[in-house]
Design brief:
The chain is an all-alpha fold. It contains six helices and no strands. The protein has one domain.
């Protein structure tokens, strides 16, 4: 089945404001990498975003908003999380800099998405070919999970630094 852009918008809107807000946040945090395009880590994030758009857009247009959309995210964001964690831990990115703050927000967003994507991917593999379902209560939970993930990342990164 083929979906028009308008039909895809309707499919996302049918899931309620939570999914729309999450999709907008994903777009914003990824496009914000353009502010730091001189940094190789931001260029990798932009390359990951281009790959995800290039793979997910055709999937959405043919399959709709289904759980299979998780696979490109998992393929790209897990390695990005490992790479950026290493960069932060080794001091190639200063967490207190504007770039470091963006990296932590980006990583937190990727981590939250990976959590949902693991669930969605597993459900797809187990035969659930239905659309992505997201509760309107999720944004509050996502914000809490993002805050906890960011805090855990900062603590982990700080433990890798020698004390002055």
């Amino acid at each position: 089945m083929e979906y028009s852009v308008e039909e895809v918008r309707q499919l996302i809107a049918a899931q309620g404001p939570a999914l729309l807000a999450w999709v907008r946040w994903l777009g914003f945090i990824n496009v914000a990498a353009l502010l730091f395009v001189r940094r190789r880590q931001a260029r990798w994030a932009l390359a990951a975003f281009v790959f995800i758009v290039a793979t997910n857009l055709p999937m959405v247009m043919t399959l709709g908003v289904v759980k299979a959309l998780a696979f490109p995210h998992l393929l790209v964001w897990i390695p990005m999380l490992i790479y950026l964690t290493r960069e932060l831990r080794w001091g190639d990115i200063q967490p207190q800099s504007p770039f470091g703050v963006w990296v932590i927000l980006y990583m937190t967003t990727c981590l939250v998405s990976v959590i949902f994507d693991i669930r969605d991917g597993a459900q797809y593999i187990l035969g659930d070919r239905g659309p992505i379902q997201i509760s309107n209560q999720v944004p509050y939970g996502v914000v809490a999970v993002m805050a906890l993930c960011a805090l855990a990342m900062i603590i982990y990164i700080r433990k890798g630094k020698p004390t002055p």
